[in-house]
Amino acid sequence: MNQQVNQLVMNASDAVLAGPDGAERSPEEEQRFRKQRLAAALRIFGKFGFDEGVAGHITVRDPMDTETFWVNPMGRSFKQVCVSDLIRVDHYGQIVEGNGILNGAAFTIHGHIHQSRPEVIAAAHAHSIYGKAWSSLGRLLDPITQDACAFFGDHALLDDYTGVVVDMNEGERLASVLGQKKAIIMQNHGHLTVGGSVEEACWWYVTMERSCQAQLLAEAAGTPRPIPEEMAQHTQMQVGNRQAGWFSAQPMFDVILAEQPDMLE
Length: 265
Description:
This protein has about 260 residues and is of the alpha+beta class. It contains 9 helices and 8 strands. Strands 4-3-2-1-5-8-7-6 form an 8-stranded mixed β-sheet, sandwiched between helices. The longest helix is centred in the last third of the chain and has 24 residues, at about 200-220. The chain is globular, with a radius of gyration of 18 Å.
């Protein structure tokens, strides 16, 4: 995979593209790093206007107790979340560290994903405008742009709406439909993305939101011409792998950390 990305960025070494796997950190340092990245991802969501009341959540698996995950507390604005606000939750919905209100949907959805996908480090979901608009159509995205090809054959559709996801059976069904893919469109609800790092999950969410926007605009203007299947698959391997997702997110994180360093408190 590194070789495929390296063809795009030319002179990057494998060490540069290794992402979070290339860093040498103690478990305590890794925990702090993941929490900082989670706070930064939430601030990015706030900056991009993905907040909608108390809806939306991003989670990251704890590196020391991998049966627990960190999440933003319900009712705290994405725009104001700090590291000290984050709460750690187990797979039974118990808060084991931190103070705050646990969003029932965050636990139901993310808990099942983290439990069924050990390789998933982070998951992201919000009620952003273009994702929820596209979800009302009950369709997968088409490969009509290079960026949308990141999801070609790698996103799922939950094709009915059964209310706010607080029922454990619904959380289990969502995780089952997601399977081994990186993203899922939940009909009449929105979209959710996962990744091997906070950065990756955050990037897939942002670029999926924009891909939904692009297809909505294109279909409003006329009939989009999709990229042929073979070329869409080839492009997916270039822009849709784990390293590409992590690397693509770095500028967003650099900017938000420079602009809002208070989040690290």
